[in-house]
Amino acid sequence: MIPFNKPFISSNEINNIIDTIEKGKISGDGYYTKLCHEWFAKAYDTTALLTHSCTAALEMAAILLDLKQGDEVIMPSYTFVSTANAFVLRGAVPVFVDIRPDTLNIDETKIEAAITEKTKAIVPVHYAGVACEMDAIMAIAKKHNLYVVEDAAQGFDATYKGKLLGTIGHLGTLSFHETKNIISGEGGALLINDPRFVERAEIIREKGTNRSRFFRGQVDKYTWVDIGSSFLPSDIIAAFLYAQFENHQEITQKRLDLWQRYHDFFADFEAKGRIRRPFCPEEATHNAHMYYVLFDSLEERTAFITYLKAHDVMSVFHYIPLHSSPAGLGYCKTPFEMPVTDDISETLVRLPLFYGLNDAQVSHIFDTIRVFLTL
Asked: pTM for the complete prediction?
């Protein structure tokens, strides 16, 4: 069976893990955590704090925005549950708007109609590592005095007009879950692009204490000064992640090569109207986080997934839209119709794409798909 995803080791992950154990500190903010923070400062030109997940980074963002009961946050419904859940935990109300049919990202032309006096933030999600229309979103936020939190869980190494995803909004979040391009099993990062949030973010991440200032010698003891939680990853996680950072260009290029092979393979089938391929705007560069195709109906997609599985190829669909989920119906608002979201959720299928996918496996996938699409 060709899996949908397979975690990988790039080079020095095991050596780094042994090294951090031998250094005698494997809890949070150890040697490799600091190296990762320094890497972000250089590569992303922003302040980054590692977290134990992208979910944790989103939860930190929600705290930093001082969201109160009933505050509203605009976001797409076509996203993973963490995008909404992080804000619901603070008592805020996610307000869903539809997505664009081309990029599958939040439709920036529909955002203003969803803004009310309770709106505090916009949370664009860069689906498949393809950038949202950030200039328009930032302009709307500025006009209405709103914060922007980029959910760039899938966006590592991808750009919008030359800017890395996650560095454009006031805050950004990244994921290093094993299904992402750059991985540490679990893990994430909060990118703090507005200096006003830096000091408080450190406190929130350290259980509401000023412990980081203590270790820098800025205070002679540390204490509880704010709300917070334990958002730090183990230094073992950071040690694994740092090895991947050192090889991120090679990893990304391998994925881009695989993505392009899929894209070339499906070109004729798209021309014949059998499927629709992904789209990336000219002002963006994607990171080959996934390769998906869109069918005309739920029935055809179901038949495709079933056929591939019968021929030892695993494929998946997502998401069940949050606006139609039990929790989404209870905690969130959907002020408008969501025709694109509803359609995409029933017709999109993701194909295997991971670093270790070899030529023989790719050939088998193509041969299997070719038979299905010409039946």
From this structure: 0.96
